[in-house]
Amino acid sequence: MARSSTTSDVFNAIGDVHRREILDALIAGEKTVGAIVNDLSMSQPQVSKHLRVLSEVGLVKCRAEGRRRLYRLEPEHFRPLREWVVKYEQAWNDRMDRLDDYLQELQQGEHQ
Amino acid sequence: MARSSTTSDVFNAIGDVHRREILDALIAGEKTVGAIVNDLSMSQPQVSKHLRVLSEVGLVKCRAEGRRRLYRLEPEHFRPLREWVVKYEQAWNDRMDRLDDYLQELQQGEHQ
DNA sequence: TTGACACATTCCGATATCGGAATACGATGA
DNA sequence: TCATCGTATTCCGATATCGGAATGTGTCAA
Closest to B5 (Cβ–Cβ): which among A17, A82, A92? Predict the structure, then answer.
């Protein structure tokens, strides 16, 4: 047996630097493939392929207008990511809270 | 030329399912390598190797106690991730705000 | 000091992934 | 209808990455 992970999940999709650059480029709003190719300096096929991956995991969507394709972010699909990350921050805060409680108990103990 | 991305950044580190499982296992708190091996069912070398990667990007830290190693999360190092994700949510909200402004202007125009 | 234990590292083969080059495809304009 | 433009797809070689098996390393207990 060998590998197990695929490019078909959001976490993997944002693993690639160039794909993150493309997402960044789209923050400003809808853009043509050609525009992205210009903004970042990547080859057109490279951009198209990365857009395909991003598209498959739902992070971007595509709209045809004549012979060009306008890609845009699909912000709702960032939520799983955000929720995952926040979980850890949450765990951290919870632990800090428990620490606070503990310290307060200690302090109360001292004053008894 | 071929690849460019390495395993040496946080985004790549969380790209792997098993590494995410390990992180999840550590949410509860510090754990031994053996404990992780038991909790998830992965081989010990596999776990050790993933822990190494997670360690290199700073997501976990290690503490030696006798002949065992206790690994724990390093929540501060999740911040770059969170900030990156939140950026997109932010961009989304901003756009919604501008839309609101626009709609309000339209409405005011109607009433003049 | 020796053996067992907990873990890390190395070596390996299988496979996924990336980028480049060439090409295919569909829409448009002459 | 045909050439062109904008984009997608395919084919390819190079390389990164993963998991398994075997082995190395340090610590403890007897």
Answer: A17
